[in-house]
Amino acid sequence: MTLSSIPLATPDLQIAAGGRRNSTLLCSPNFSPKQDLEILLKQSPLPTLVTYRPKWEGGQYEGDDSRRLDTLRLALESGADYVDVELQVAHEFFSSIHGKKPEKVKIIVSSHNYENTPSSEELGNLVARIQATGADIVKIATTALDISDCARVFQVLAHSQVPTIAIAMEERGLISRILAPKFGGFLTFGAIEAGVVSAPGQPSIKDLLDLYNLRQIGPDTKVHGVIGKPIGHSKSPHLYNAAFKSVNFNGIYLPLLVDSVANFISAYSSPDFVGYSYTIPHKEDGLRCCDEVDPIAKAIGAISQMIRRPTDGKLIGYNVDYLGAIAAIEEALRASNGASPTTGSPLAGKLFVVIGAGGAGKALAYGGMEKGARVVVANRTYEKAKELASKVGGQAITLAELEDFHPEDGMVLANTTSVGMKPNVDLTPLSKNALSRYCLVFDAIYTPKLTRLLREAQECGAIPVYGTEMFINQAFVQFERFTGFPAPKQLIRDTLAKNT
Known about the structure:
Layout: E1 5-9, E2 23-26, H1 33-43, E3 48-51, H2 65-78, E4 82-86, H3 87-97, E5 106-112, H4 120-132, E6 137-143, H5 149-159, E7 164-169, H6 174-178, E8 187-191, H7 205-211, E9 222-228, H8 236-246, E10 251-257, H9 261-267, E11 273-278, H10 283-288, E12 292-293, H11 295-300, E13 305-308, E14 315-318, H12 321-337, E15 351-355, H13 359-370, E16 374-379, H14 382-391, E17 395-398, H15 399-402, E18 411-415, H16 432-435, E19 438-443, H17 452-459, E20 463-465, H18 467-483, H19 489-498
Parallel strand pairs: 2-3, 3-4, 4-5, 5-6, 6-7, 9-10, 9-11, 12-14, 15-16, 15-18, 16-17, 18-19, 19-20
Antiparallel strand pairs: 1-8, 11-13, 13-14
Helix pairs in contact: 1-2, 4-5, 8-19, 12-13, 12-18, 18-19
């Protein structure tokens, strides 16, 4: 018998910690019904949900199905609070109990789709079929092939007339699990141990309660998140959720694994989806989806933040990447030469080499130009490097040419590509031999904090500037735009330090 996940009842999540919680009993192949059920149900200090999932519905049980249904009937009679029965056998199960069950027991009738998320019409028909069985609680689990699939799951919850559990599995379905309380879901599931899950994409209980503040989520909670691909590495949810909670702001900040920005924006047009941060590779696509773009973001050609204006619902794009990165580089240069902040930018006149011509590369190149640096853009594709360099009055070279690029010593290097980011921490965009020509090296990557590029730059005598500094500085600005409150700067710094 294994206990591997816990369903958290969303009505209970509105009360203080210490209020009612639920547990679920998930049966292993070595399960002995009469002996084990009695012990587990009698000794459980929590309300219990019993499921005995067969292989044909994504579970582990491979034996005789009549014995499995006998076990679920036994759970019904032995004091379980909830019993989960699959739609395919629900009629048989209800017929076998002849309408008799303890008053406190609620029967969940469930359907699991491991291939996709059906259309809204098909989901509506599925809910009706489940209700028609006599279910006390409807459960639907689908598979999210795109994050926009979750919008249809939310529609099921919002329009349901009976207690309903509706989630989308896999990483693209994560938001359906976290936002269940917002849309009226009866419960959501969390794994007891991270990585030990009973369904694909299931978060841990610790993350649900401590990272996403699930007990504080309600119908009026405003939804924010970071849009990227990949996105699992992002520390942004740690920072913003802790900061939101510290100022009593009714908001949630989610990792959003987005394949198409346009599809995402179209699917989540509700006024409660109010703001996003943008990361690789969607900064330029994000700009194209804005109704209005801040002049600086327009000049850069990419956004790092999008806000839904409350007065008219229009999406406004901003770029604050260059503020965070340039400020961190300037601070390090001043510290190295003892310059005063009032003496102008230490970047002025410096040869400033930017690796990458994507959204972050554009931001850094633009920021360098603004500070009077001589900008060089190095990119795998020369045409993209040339296009960006022409906009900032700079020079374009290929990454191959960068290896031997040495017009002078004391140059400043900024990597804006994802080369060296977790999990590919052994990679670097530039060889160690080439790093000796630079007095300072900045890496926009912050997972890990000390990338191979920065470690080797430090060994060559260059000043390393961590991506965490850019991340922190722009987080202050984004937080204030999201909430209207001053950023809790020390809390944000401490939270990032604890999570990197």
